[in-house]
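Quick note —
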Amino acid sequence: MGYSVVFLIVILGMPNFSRLQIFFTCLTFLLMEMIVWSVLFRVAQKRYPKRASLPVEIPRLTAVGSKSSFFQFGMDLIFVFIAFFTANFLKRGTLVLLPSYDLLLLIILGLWAFTAFITGKFKKSNQQGFYFSLWQWLKAGIFMLTMIAAIVFGFRLFEFSRFQGFAPILLLMLIEAVFLRFYYWWYENRENKDIESIKGIQRLQNQEELVIDTDIDKLRDRLLEPVRDKLQAKLSPYNDSLFNFIDKHIDLNKILCMETASEHNSTKFSLTSDKFPIRMFLSLDKINNIRRINKYFLDTHNMLLPGGYYIGYGHTIATHREWLYSKFSKEIARYIYMIDFCFTRIMPKLPVLQNIYFTLTKGKNRVISRAEVLGRLCFCGFKIIAEKNIDQRFCFIVQKVKTPAIDESPTYGPIVTLKRVGYNNDIMPTYKFRTMHPYSEYLQEYVVETQGLQKGGKLENDFRLTTWGILMRKLWIDELPMLYNWVKGDLQLVGVRPLSVQYFNMYNDELKKMRKGVKPGLVPPFYADLPETFEEICESEKLYIQAFLKHPIKTQWNYFWRAFSNIIFKGARSK
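Predicted structure written out below.
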């Protein structure tokens, strides 16, 4: 921060600011930060002990020597002189330096040596390729720019030309970039040549022979063993809860080792496989780091045999919030969570900001809801077997039981298009403001099975609803876009509720047939009769349809005012 301030002062030619005030302010701020964060870190260590994590294998880095390249050092020193005298020529039209400008050259040489040392720009361990090396050299150049500004300001050396102070460093950075490009082009061509030298042949002679006398029968026996013991040995040292969760819901004694696959990094593993009969796939890479989650789930679906199991995990909104509040104090976590909410949950869902979000993050660490995770899995043809939060992670077990849905663009934005059973039992699109998490429509059957129905026919404890969605439903704000369906003629003012296919299939054949002959409506007969159970809802709709077929206008008029009275005076609301 101090370098940035003085850099601006020198560039803009404002020498009158107090050196003491600027440097002392930055130093005081640094010391205060160190004290505060040291205290907070120690408190957090005592309050929140480390927890066991899922078994993710960390690749070991190969040891790289820390020797420096003397060739690069010598060439770069020459480039410093070339850049300095080139800048002097561009400024003065001559290579001869003005009096005292040899001091400026010495300052630049000193800064070049110091920044080369602290950045390790010549160390071979920092040179894993052109772009890695270029970044180290550019960092050294940026440090030189900021430090020369600090020296000019700190020692009041404003008699020197700003052009001759900064231009040599910029020219040096340009020359270095060109040099590195040619250097690595030459280095790569040299390394790619066939090994023909004596030293190369000697290196090859150090290879050791492998024992190829493999016991095939023993190997086959191992592949045909049940996977339970091997999976337990793999998971138990890290997390017994995860293994117990899997063992409880899958009979691991009936799945063989050769029928099981696992992976730790979704970006380096091809899931599509026609070679092996995979019945269980275990992924230990959280799905939040996968850029295209649906494609990953579909690839997994294609790899598994019908009836095969997929086990995975991720961070949901709930587990992510729990994790944040365990890392920070309640006051700090609240503000971090607000910022995190806007960045990880709102930005990925808005058309323009969505592109910016994925450009910045590459889809890493996206926070998604429990309902979206399960909904995407159902969308891709899986049946949910079990789910559980384990060690601040949402773990799931699903089974391949269906073909994937054929929807090309599932709803994800603020306005959703829902497929509903309409007139003549045709599927029609209806429009609503989003009150549920994305992909929630594919969870209807699962929620009915696990949660059941409450009074009024609504789902009991529907976890798919968002916080603002509950409020919007109570005020009917979510149904305002359905007026467009009414304008189009898909809906009438009063009529039976437009139902999803899953909910519609819960009706008996008689009521399905009766519904076929009437249009759904914006105001259902529910608000006129106020039924409490699913059977009473069915009976209410049956009575409405019978009356409507005899006297359509009179029936709609009667039901509309009865519903209006119940809503205004009795407070009837959608739950």
